[in-house]
What we know:
alpha/beta; 17 helices; 5 strands
Amino acid sequence: MNFFDFLKTIFLQKKANSPDELTPEAASLINFKVVVTEFADNVESSGAEKVCSLLKTKEGLQVSYFNEPFNKSFLNLESRSFFDLLEKGQTIIDKSNADVLIWGCREGDKIRLNFQTNLQYETTSGTFTSILDSLYFPAEIFDISNPFPNSLSYLIYGAVISAIAAPNRQIRIQKRYLLKKIIATLSSDNSAKQLSVEYLPFIMNFLGIIYLSYSYDAETDKDFKIVKNLLETAISHQDLIKNPIHLGCIYYHLGQLYDSASNYILKKPSAYYKGAINNYRLAQKYLGKYTYPYDYGAISYRLADLFYDYWKQKNELQALRDSVFNLREAEKIFTYALFPEFWARIQGKLGYHLSLIANLTQSTDISELAIAAYKNQQKIITEKRDPHLWAEIQEKIGDIYFYTGRQDGDTDALEEALEYYHDALYIFENMELTDATKRLGISITKTSQLLN
């Protein structure tokens, strides 16, 4: 099947070098750590060692092999064992300090690869990969005596680089630099053209992830169309997909594509918002709340941001309510006990979005819900741990009490506002934050005037 020839026509046109590219010396200092686990295989195989040896030849990687014995039955991707997969993977990542962990599992005459990263569902740093994203290959090509097609080794390489979280600018630049080289290689190498058509939807899905990871913040729709073409090609062959979660992943990435376009393409038609929302909701049909809750919850979190952005564009109150609904869905999954940092971010957004609804509807009850959410956030963002952010939350709570007190003539609410404002003022003064101190001074004066 000559689908790599197909890529030549749509996948990459030469682009000018980015002015932000790292110097060769700086790039050489950034190496991403990859750990390949021993494959779950019912026959004696050298698949993991072969993947290790392939990746060790690739730029920017430090690769190691993890072969400590443990029960790998959770690699079947069934929902009942999914939590075991995440937990064991996180343990290995913590132990090895890996950027990416590669799982391998035999399914019949195929090997399935999956990619796990640290805190995979909490990271917001430009990674689009789910641990459920699966890359299939014929098991026979992992035999140590068989040649491994160059294009497929670069596909695995691209999957690894795409999965890496990029929390700072230098890592983002290095990640993009490597992806650019990978894409150029994939678009010019047809060494895997004889691969059977049954592998096409999975390969197209990962090609879509790779190109989306490279071009997600493009300001024109040229790259958008390329990724859309790749992912829609994968969906057009859904009859070859036996497990519906794989179809859910493809819709998830289409949602991410439209989501990114709504943020970065200079012209922002509502079609991008609608495309993102529709594809995310399609993904949730396959990645359900009670089967694959973390993917469902991650999508809900993104939907909340989309509905909020749509409200800013269209000023439709229902969109803001839909945002809160989706944050509530995410809140049920990313709990205080298991995901304290992520839960705190959700609470902060809930507090803000509920406060907006409260102002628009003049609802005291919703104001109280907003305050409760902000106070929940402060269970994690404490005065001792992060005084600046804690003080900002105090100020926000004070604002809600101020508007409630002014609206209802409620002196108790105004007195509460003063208390919260003074707590924030104390922190800002000690941190010598002049602008924040002036702002709080104005708020305190306005509140005191209403009380008098």
